[in-house]
Specification:
- By secondary structure, the protein is an all-alpha fold.
- Helix 4 packs parallel to helix 7 and helix 4 packs across helix 11.
- The radius of gyration is 23 Å and the shape is elongated.
Length: 294
Amino acid sequence: MAGHSRGEVRLFWRTFSRNQLACVGGAIVGILVLLALLAPLVSPHDPHRPDVKKILDSPSRAHLLGTDQIGRDVLSRILYGSRVSLAVGFVSVGIATAIGIMLGAASGYHGGVVDGVMMRLVDLMLVFPRFFLLLAVLAFLQPSIWTIMAVIGLTGWMGVARLVRAEFLSLKEREFVIWSQSIGASGFRIIWRHILPNAMAPVLVAMTLGIPAAILTESGLSFLGLGVQPPYATWGNILNDGKDSIEIAWWLSLYPGLAILITVLSYNLLGEGIRDALDPRLRQAVGRVVRLGR
């Protein structure tokens, strides 16, 4: 069993490594995460300290990406903003995935009335446009990073629930599940020890693709003034600060916009690569190519 698992990992890596765009996306994601973790060490200036002598300075050797309306260094604010954006992405997707797994597993395994109720709940949540639902909820709450994480997570679990349900509906008819039921294993044990580990491949892809969606959502909310509030720097509120000065301070809109673009694109490339590497048909084709190469 251990050898089989190692073989699956090697085949996954061979398939993934053949996708050059996915490898580039993964490398950029790794660099972004590293920069976010090391932001206090690599930031050239204090992102919150204003300097009235350097208001709206264009990019220069002293300030590589220029300064904003009160003289704060844009590069430092983008680096610190990456911490907020990535934290919101990871935590909110973690919340959404946990909820989606629990509801999808219960729905797919038990079926019947449970499945009907769960799917009607999913349909009800999907009726409302997510962004407008977020705006409505945040109108009654005090915007903060924790509120944003929770609200995005609590409104983004429906796709994961559907994926997990579909996997459970297929896997619960397999021989190893029927055998576990025949020897008296509890439903809880069958779900968490036997079915769920075999249903995690599409969930992993959904998580990878969900992080850039959460980052975009947080950036949009911050741009509208409903996201993480100053003095915390986020890519969205840096863009919001720059919209009034776009004609004379183009760098305030260009660089945070590029940061969002590169991050979202990199996560999407990584997620597509993981999805392709987990595709059994593609993995079989790569396995045949490797064996012929030998």
